[in-house]
Write the structure tokens for this entry.
Amino acid sequence: MTMPPDWDSLIQKHLDGQTNEEEAAELSEQIVANADIRSDYLRAAQLHSALNNELLAFEKEQGSTVSSTPAHLEHTVSSTPTRKQVPPSLIVALLAGLLGAGMAWAISAPKAEVRALHVADGTFDTLPAGPVQRGFSSQFGIWSGDPLEIAEQTNGNRRLRFMETGNVKGDPNGGASACNAFQFIDLTSLRDQLQAGDANAQHILKLSVRFERTSAPIDEAFPKLRADCHIYLFDTEPSAIVDGWPDVLNDVVAVAKKRARLTSGQASGRVRASCLLEPEATVALITLNVSVGMETTTPVKLGNFFADDVKLTLTSRPDLPVRVVKLNPGK
Amino acid sequence: MIDSDHKHERFTRLLLESEPVILRAILVIIPNRADAREIMQETAVALWRQFDSYNPDRPFLNWAMGFSRIETRRFIARQKRRAQLSEQAIEVLEQEMSGSPTFISGIEHHLACCLGKLSDNNRRLIKGYYHDNRNVEWLAEHHGRTIEAIYKAIQRIRRDLQTCIERQLKEEQA
């Protein structure tokens, strides 16, 4: 009599590429036929997949500091891909060659470096529960905006709650279709560091945040609300951005935006917006907002809409080692 | 030329945004990292070739995931280095994943915290395997253990991490 397989061990073996054809076939049959084993496989494989995330901080977290200082690096995670592990930017360079008149290939894979930039109170845990500064502050490293508050959950976690839509400039006739949270980040010292490095490197800023909506009386009137995160890059002072808002958006150096639409009881997962960090950018304005999706000048209460765990990262990729060779040069 | 540059930049941005999610989904089906990245590259090539047919009113990620599924099948059909799951198993896993998109974000949210609870030795081992892309032979030599012991240790650490994450998810829901 043969013992039934230990499915958990077989799943683990498969994740490490240790199963043979027979074992993989046996596991496949169980995944199709047995919901429990399918669920076990998914949970284990999704953890394995998450462990491959190059942004994951494997080192123990250092104590975070509240600061209004220029953007600095909280930790650095380097990724050195093997020859086959070419980052997307290189793939794009390759494609540009393939689809043009030439052919391109990677001589060697570049080293990508991912760094976490400091967002003051990105987890909101260090802020006191209660209202957030109203209006549009031009100070670096603080949250401000339309009616917002820091709300504490029963487990002690604090997060940002969007209270109601408003007009951040205080214009009574201005639009009030969104509730915005703003924070300025000084990029000058980061820019100096980057300029001292590889002048041809490509730098990508990525903002990410989690949104969640729980039940509230407004849910019936607004079954779906929009939550956005933006990065705006400028080469001017925050005070000029505040004074010129929103017309100043015409002068933006780069912008990135990502949207999630949530119904009551939904969490968004991580919403990510990314843009190239242009060399002339000195200031990043990050914004989180919730909007009702219609033009209104009357503030709308937003019920229970939250944001948490705001992160900003910089991915740097050196000059791409791609060589281009003309195909059929005579034609 | 400007249109071409604009298209190129737009594609780069969309791909950069979606790449981590696509790669994670591929890794669930094809757990080997080098294989998964190869599929990701093929997917990127296919996406660029078909980018003119992309409707910007639709989510890029959904459009791209269709291509990654096709490239995954093509990869399985042409490579015989490692044993893979059957077509039927892949289909049911993909269906299940599309039905619970928030599951992975729950894992991500708690993973960093659970990694912090590992012993220094275990964290070094899992970092070497996943982050530094070390193979088990290298890890066995540097940790003074057998290859079999390294596999077992990695599998045990993954189980511990899973238990930790699931406990935290339950506490969050309580």
Residues 104 and 324 of chain A are 4 Å apart (CA to CA). Chain A has two domains: 7-49, 116-317. Confidence is low (pLDDT under 50) at residues 60-110, 319-331 of chain A. Residues 35-51 of chain A form the longest helix (17 residues).
